[in-house]
Amino acid sequence: MSLAAQLNAVQSGFEANAPAHMKAPIIKANQEFQRTYDPSKAIQVGDTLPSFKLSNAVGKEVTLAELLSNGPLLITFYRGEWCPFCNLALAALQKHIEELRAKGVTLIAISPELPSQSLSTSEKNNLKFQVLSDVQNKLAKQLGILFAQPEYLRPVFETFGHDFKARNGDASLEVPLPASFLVGKDGVVRQSFVNPDWTKRLEPSVALEWVDGL
């Protein structure tokens, strides 16, 4: 089953089974953001990725320069361990990790969650690639892929038991868009997937096509 089919199944289940008072604000927020997001604000193919230093799941700082020293990067941003769409996307990429490595490409995932939460994500999904913490979404903001979720979603998240302050280190509801970038060894963005609809993700088969085109 394709990743898209899995994501659609989750969304269909949510729409069919979620209580109306929770479903309505979530759907509203997604639709509003899709209408208002300006994709021209995001980093574009041909741009150079800004340098960064982020902590991995065990708290070790990792720099962009260090990562690029090993070759091209496939970077995927996700909202957090609490997001079922994100977990499906990470698991789908995991299935192709050896193919990516064989082609000399390093896969990394980035979220605003604290390193302790990233470790939980790695353990839960048995991931074989680095999960980095973009605390306060500083890199996501630089890349123009930030979604400041509306305050009317806070009661919904609280009902689900999602404590953003505990997960992210602050009470902000800001999260990155579903976004993936193929970055050449020179730090230049070669391919980009940025979608304001959080139910959509880059298909792994497309990522592999990107890599083949390097």
TrEMBL record:
GO BP terms, alphabetized: cell redox homeostasis; cellular response to oxidative stress
SUPFAM superfamilies hit by this protein: Thioredoxin-like (SSF52833)
Its EC number(s): 1.11.1.24
Identification of the protein by name: thioredoxin-dependent peroxiredoxin
InterPro entries, A to Z: AhpC/TSA, Peroxiredoxin_BCP/PrxQ, Thioredoxin-like_sf, Thioredoxin_domain
Molecular function via GO: thioredoxin peroxidase activity
Source organism superkingdom: Eukaryota
GO cellular component: cytoplasm
Keyword entries, A-Z: Antioxidant, Disulfide bond, Oxidoreductase, Peroxidase, Redox-active center
Reaction catalyzed: a hydroperoxide + [thioredoxin]-dithiol = an alcohol + [thioredoxin]-disulfide + H2O
Domain Thioredoxin, first and last residues per copy: 43-214
